[in-house]
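Record format v2
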Amino acid sequence: MEKKKKEMNMAESMKYLLKTIWKADKGCVIFSFYKNCSEEIFVSFFFVYMTQKIYECIEKKSPYSQLAKVVIIFCLLHICIHIGSAFYTYNIRLKTPIVYRYIFDKVITKATTIEITRYEQPDFYDKFSRSLDECLNKAMDGLSNLTRSVGAAMSALAALLIIARVDPVLIIFVFPPVLGAFAFGVKENQQEYQLRKEETYDLRVMEYVKRVFYEKKYAGEIRLYKIRNILFGKHKESYEKRYQIHKKYRKKIAFYQFIRIVFFVGMTLFGTYIYVTYVIKTTGESKIGAYVAMLSGIGFVSWQVKESVHNGIEAGKCCLFMNNLKEFLEYQSKSTDGGTKKIQGLIGDISFHNVSFTYEGGKSKVIDDLTFTIRKGEHIALVGENGAGKTTLVKLLMGLYPVSEGKIIADGCDIREFEPKEYHSRFGTVFQDLQIFALPLGENVLMKEPKSEAEKQLVIDSLRKAQFGDTLQSLKNGINTMITKEFDEDGFVCSGGQAQKIAIARVFAKNPDVVILDEPSSALDPIAEYNMYHNMMQVSEGKTVFFISHRLSSARIADKIYFLEKGKIKESGTHNELIELNGSYAQMFRLQAQNYQESVPENYINQSRVGEELHV
Amino acid sequence: MCSDRKEKLTVRRLLSNITFVLKYAMKLDKWLVVLVFSAFTICGLVYALFDSLFLKMFIEILSDTNKNLRESLIFVLIGMIFVEIGEIVQLLTDNYARARFVKIAGSIQADFIKKAADIDLICYDQNKYFDDFVIAASQAEEMIINGVMSTARIIGTMTTILALGALIMTINPLIAIFPVAGFFINMITRFQITKLEYEYEIVRKKVMRKADYSKRVFYQPEYAKEIKLSNIEIPLRKQFEAAIDEITDEARIAGRKIAILSLINWIVVFTMFSFFFVPMYLGYLALVKMSIGLSDAAAMNNAQGEVRNNLDGLNYALVDFQKVGQFAERFRRFIEYEIKIEKAAGSKKIPEEKAVLEIKNMFFRYDGADKDTLRNISMAIKPGERVAIVGENGAGKTTFIKLLMRLYDVTSGSICYGGEDIRNFATEEYRNIFGTVFQDYQLYGISLADNVKMDCANEQDRTIIEKALEKADFTEKLNRLPKGIDTEMTREFNEEGTMLSGGEAQKVAISRMFAKTNQMSIAILDEPSSALDPFAEHTLTKNMMECAKDAAVIFISHRLSTTRDADRIYMFENGEIIEEGTHDELMKLDGKYKRMFEKQAHYYKNSIL
């Protein structure tokens, strides 16, 4: 039952593969079928029919001209087939990029509509990221295998016709290998498949251990601790286990091969030779040439049948990859029904109304019934312990996550009613896990190609404000410098701090309505950090700014501080108000501040703080 | 990128490399190598003789009216049995060898990683060595399997060609000309085609990397946010389209040349030399000169075909041979690399008591660099002292601590522990005195307990590990883990593995030090709390200091509040110590440290106006 279901899937995915490539480029499909079928069918005439004719000529002592005629005609035909194949070789190289463009254009278009929450689910990477990488190669391999399988089958049929013309009885001998190929060849393949499946885990362990030993980032710890002992052990265990798995399956596979080759193929071998000997010896020797030619003909047919089955199975394996592509392209995102409303002017006040958020499949609320309002132009600091929900809150605000309950209102309008692209464009964000792209520096800052002089100047100014000025000066190609060594040997590789500065420059260049800074300075040294904040505050006059930082010195310059704990706002107010409240924020601030202030004992600070603040 | 680099090897070196590979394989599994070699020879001979000699005799028997049916059948049966034996030998050897190769590949990989673990760290910083590592790592298994297989193939095909050659010689030596001539023409044209394909492949890889990168960004989770919030989609798409256009143009030029050359190759080698000249010549011999009969013609036809196939096989095997030689070159260079620091046995014993670590006029320069990374560093750190290293990004702080742990060796000057140059100690023993939290700590795909212990954790270790995690403020998370400290970390190869957040992972890294408390005489903390919130940072810093109370502590931090209580602070700039002293002394000095401290302290002060 289950097997049947799998075959259905294979047939379907084959159809999907052909349909996809057909839509991308009709020629690609037609050429592949043409090439493989014409070549294969001709081969059977060439090998079986021509050999028969030549042997017959020699045996019957026909005039030499007759033999020459046969050979010349076949060779001319052979050349014609070659020309077709050469044409294919040329074309397939041209067509492959076209198919590639078609498939990935669809993937890219789709990818931009899939919601962030889906990306962040753990299976996303395994399911899509890994398989989409291989998708094109698999598609083209699938097509090539499929056409070869069809070609081999047709070729076998053609050869059968030729054999039947000599002696229909010989056809019987074709069946055992065909039967063997279908019954046991398929079984062999299943075993191979099982083998691969069973060893996957151990193979991954081995690959992982190997990687740990040659990747630079692990090198220091490997040398300082004795962790190598565990990893050596794991590696040994894995390859021993793989060996056991292989041994187990190889025994089975050898058994099936034995039956298929020694028994079924052997039966035909014995059968045909004995039959031919019998016919010739009992009926006279007039047709030795033809019969001998047919002996290799039958070998040829069983070979082609095996090839056809083998290629068919390989094609099926490749086609299964198409399932991932299909699933990706047909994925129904939940929040694609984004609104259409345009935003008038700058985004004004933003308010949260009983907003809650739970991750799909998560048990507890990450954001729990939040209600608050942020006035336009306010500078807000979000503080709290690791995992309090600070980053989730800003993601909800930007519409990257859909709220589970409640609503977020901006300018008196539920943010779900805005056109998503338009709404997103209003934010300038530096994420904790910021990404640098393998594009020129200018494009990394402006997020598009800087064309006019003004745009180029904007990029340079933004980089300067982000404290990247010194580095920029040392770059020979200025803002045209390629970032990362991905494509350019001379590309610039950023340190953590430099990457952060580029990401900050993006915000300066974008000049958004709302600025969001999520731990923007964790890799910066104190002076760079100070200057960055200073500049940021200058340019965000009148803009709404959110910042998240563990360094509370930055919270102090905020108009309002929200202290989050387990998805709820525990405290809110200005720095002075919160210090006066003497709650968690005050405690946190004091912890960090004590060493920056004059050397006074901790308990003294605790007592005196309240009083001091009153003076301010 | 670097693997495209062509390496020319002399024939002698190539052969020496192949010998190396074969010896290696023999060492791992002598019988397998012998078995594969004999199987290839036997099977090659059986099939070749079946297609030629057997066919010839078969036709002769059929045409010979003196032989009756019974005699003929016996002859056929004997021939068949030989073929069947060949088949059986082949399939058994094939399956057996495939399984054994898994084991051999595993052993060579094990040899590789054991060596990799001992290679001096400095090699990782040098691209030349590093490329060799990675390439040797990825090719070791392929190298050994291909080495054995291609040698077997060469032996097999050579034997077959010799046997068939002898057969052809007995009938008509001229026939041998066709496959040999075809072989040479094939080799020349194939060589041109392969060269063109190789060149195209290099261009294709380079161009497609751009296209691949641009499209991959769209479905990699880590980029999703930026894609959504910005218009970076536009330049990425442009890069993608440009790459596709470029490769299409390249394909047009290369494709035309390759197609034409292939056409010539097919017509000349296949059509002319195999299917035209041979039948025409054999027909001429049989029908015009009447010197051979059908049996000889058929046998000759097949024999020359077999010779051609075997020559082709030899051609491919030789290409493989060369590849194996090149793989082996890198592998040998790697395995024969002389280790300087790691595994050094040392002539002196590490002092039992905690001792002073003294750095005298130390300089350090990376190989090939044009300036020193560290210049003239001197300091002495006594047990129980707290020393802070501060400075801007890139000042050389991390390199400095790597030198202390002897991950690198000093270029000049010295580091002494208890008055003895650290180069006189056994490296492993010396490193054991350190408890370190790295800035770029890593978690491994093993259990949490092992991740803390960084060695095989046994039963007695469990309480130590749990205590260490508790001190690292990890208990709350630990209670939520499905299998406690036996929970597997990362999803490297286990879908059920646990992924930790940045802060949690840092806590695990710190707990490694807590688990090592007893043996540790120097603690090194490189930005240990960058991902922690202030509460956790406070608790952990306190615990770390407590845990290291008798040991010397060296710490690096951008948060100057944590360095304030240090016994001494060293301010690094461009690889030199520019200021040193206690916090108060440095503040009095009114230099760079003061400026840095005040910038950071600014907003913590009581009034910020």
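DSSP finds 18 helices and ten strands in chain B.
Chain B touches chain A through 173 residues (CB under 8 Å).
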